[in-house]
Structure formats: C-alpha cells, structure tokens
Amino acid sequence: QVQLVESGGGLVQAGGSLKLSCAASGRTFTYYSMGWFRQAPGKEREFIAVMRRSVGPSYYADSVKGRFTISRDNAQNTVYLLMNNLKPEDTAVYYCVADSLGRVGREEHEYDYWGQGTQVTVAS
Predict the structure, then answer these.
(1) How much is the pLDDT for 28?
(2) C-beta of residue 20 within 8 angstroms of C-beta of residue 37
(3) How far apart are CA 51 and CA 10, in angstroms?
(4) pLDDT confidence of 46, banded at 50, 70, 90?
(5) How far apart are CA 12 and CA 31, in angstroms?
(6) Per residue in 64-108, pLDDT tens?
(7) Residue 48: which region, alpha, beta or left (left: phi > 0; alpha: psi -120 to 50)?
(8) Coil, strand, or helix at residue 121?
(9) Nearest CA to 58 among 44, 47, 46, 42?
(10) 120, 105 in Cβ contact below 8 A?
(11) Do 8 and 117 meet the contact criterion of CB atoms below 8 Å apart?
(12) What gap in Å lies between CA 82 and CA 30, rounded to an integer?
C-alpha cells in the first residue's frame, strides 16, 4: 500500500505562488503515476494535473494550464505542484493521487491512492 502525504498548503494572496509537495511512502514501487485533484467548497473534485514516474508528458486541467506545473523527484518519491498566478477560484483542498497502473486520466476512479488533502486558500 502507498501512503501519500501532502504539504505546502496555506494562505496566499491572489497573484501569488505556492508549491505543494506530496511524499509517497510504503510500497512505493506499486505506483506509476502521481498527480493532483482539488475540491472547492460546494463543488465536485476536479482533476488538476498528473504525470507518470517514467518519461512522458504531463497533463493539466484547462483551468490551470499555463499557471500550474507538476514535477517529480522519483528518488524521493515525491511529486510537486507549483502554482503560479493563483486566483481566488483556486481555493480548494488539494489532494495528491497515485495510480498503480500509471493512468493519467481525469477521473477520480482511475487513481488507487489518495492523500488526506492540503488546504489552499487564495485571498483576493
């Protein structure tokens, strides 16, 4: 089993930046993709970004393209989400996800492992 722990959330002013981290532990060899979802108050969970552990493209939701960047450090079993030009509508709980099959889709059910989430609040 893989455990995912997010960190780096907090309060930031609109236009600012924040970098989230997600550290995987446990049976880390069982995951082949990692990414991020978020859930704003009153809204469904939304796909944000994902990438595989191996060489390949990153995938982003249209709402964050050009502003957010996903990256990884496989040696540390960590995935990051650099969020630039944050907007109030980015306010949400951000969840780290991982998948044992290396899926990179936009659906929640594609991911085997979920972190507990970290709150990001963007003040206008």
Answers:
(1) 67
(2) no
(3) 24
(4) very high
(5) 31
(6) 999 999 999 988 889 999 999 999 999 999 999 999 888 889 999
(7) alpha
(8) strand
(9) 47
(10) no
(11) no
(12) 25
| Residue 76 CB burial class (10 angstroms; 0-12, 13-18, ≥19) | exposed
Tokens of 116: 């507990």
Angle at 60 between CA 115 and CA 102, to 5 degrees: 55
Structure tokens of 63? 């709402």
Token pair of 118 as six digits: 């970290």
56 secondary structure, DSSP code: -
Q: Kindly list the distances between the CA atom of residue 43 and the CA atoms of 39, 49, 97, 113, 114, in Å, as whole numbers in the listed order.
A: 6, 18, 18, 21, 18
19 with 80: CB under 8 angstroms?
A: yes
> E-assigned strands of the chain?
2-7, 10-13, 18-26, 33-39, 46-52, 58-60, 68-73, 78-83, 92-99, 113-114, 118-123
